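Annex B.
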Amino acid sequence: MFLSLFLCVFSCSLLLFCCLFCCIFMIIFGGFKRSIHPLALTETPRLNATHTGTNRSSLSPAEWHFVDRNRHELIYHVSNVVPILDHLLQEKVLKDEQYDEAMTKSTTQDKMRFLLSGPLKSAGDRDKDVLLSALKKYEPHLIEELERKG
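CARD domain-containing protein: predicted structure tokens.
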């Protein structure tokens, strides 16, 4: 009798501990992941001389930067992502942490999606021009095709 009571109390205590641990883990690493990310506190959009401060949503799609207009095609058709990331790191478009995070992505599509949704999403024209020059160097046929399509 005493043993079964002890096992019941022990099991309930273990279950309660696991639930509390999971809740704390989810609070720290789940729902609040973006707000505790170290870059989220220090990152600000980079503006440059060619950036007008105009929000992309206030422009017509024809006025968007080439990189923004062709986001979908770049994500799904760029295959030489690593040399492009190397170029962006060398030109100081990416920080070491951003480069490292991009390199952890398993597919080329995930690397490009990270790049276009993260570091280059709010970047100015200068940074997007650096990406475009890297794309012209490492993906010339794709860029020529996209430029022909307009």
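The radius of gyration is 23 Å. Confidence is low (pLDDT under 50) at residues 30-54. Further annotation is deferred to the next reporting cycle.
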